[in-house]
Design brief:
It contains two helices and nine strands, in the order αβββββββαββ. By secondary structure, the protein is mostly beta strands.
Length: 167
């Protein structure tokens, strides 16, 4: 009996080791690891990644402390987004993740904002608490949009906007 229990524990431990830990590069539910665009500003900024869902900057809202986004969902699928985001700066023709100004651990409020069909949803993004005031330059902001799949699963899709501070 003890031998069987030890074998079960070893099997469970092996399964846990091979399943890995989730970290910042966690695989998406679709099984793919998203790769952010790393070259010059996106040619088709605000383009639909999923037909019928867009995310774009609200004109005149960009500042060194934040900006406002406009989302639009014209699909029949449920969609939402959260508070989390990633900021990157264009440095020598490559986007590099910005370092955070917070010491220690940090997190975003775990909330889902709905994207009702046919309605515009405005969302303010303030990053000064996490990245400080942005210096002059070209930046890329990434937000994930969550789509409900027909099989009741979810799909996380990275959407990007590119903006400039200064000049």
């Amino acid at each position: 009996m003890k031998k069987k229990r030890i074998v079960e524990c070893l099997c469970l431990l092996t399964l846990l080791l091979f399943s890995g830990c989730s970290g910042p590069n966690q695989m998406e539910p679709s099984g793919e690891l998203p790769k952010p665009p790393s070259s010059l500003p996106l040619e088709k900024e605000g383009e639909e990644i999923v037909e019928g869902i867009t995310m774009k900057l609200v004109e005149g809202t960009v500042s060194p402390q934040g900006l406002e986004l406009e989302f639009l969902n014209t699909t029949d699928r449920e969609a939402l987004f959260g508070e989390d985001f990633i900021l990157r700066k264009l440095v020598q023709n490559q986007y590099e993740d910005l370092p955070v100004v917070i010491e220690g651990d940090y997190g975003f409020e775990d909330i889902g904002y709905g994207l009702p069909k046919g309605e515009k949803v405005l969302h303010e993004v303030e990053w000064v608490w996490l990245y400080g005031d942005l210096e002059e330059g070209i930046y890329q902001l990434e937000k994930k949009i969550i789509l409900r799949k027909e099989d009741s699963g979810i799909e996380l899709l990275p959407y990007y906007v590119v903006f400039q501070i200064g000049k």
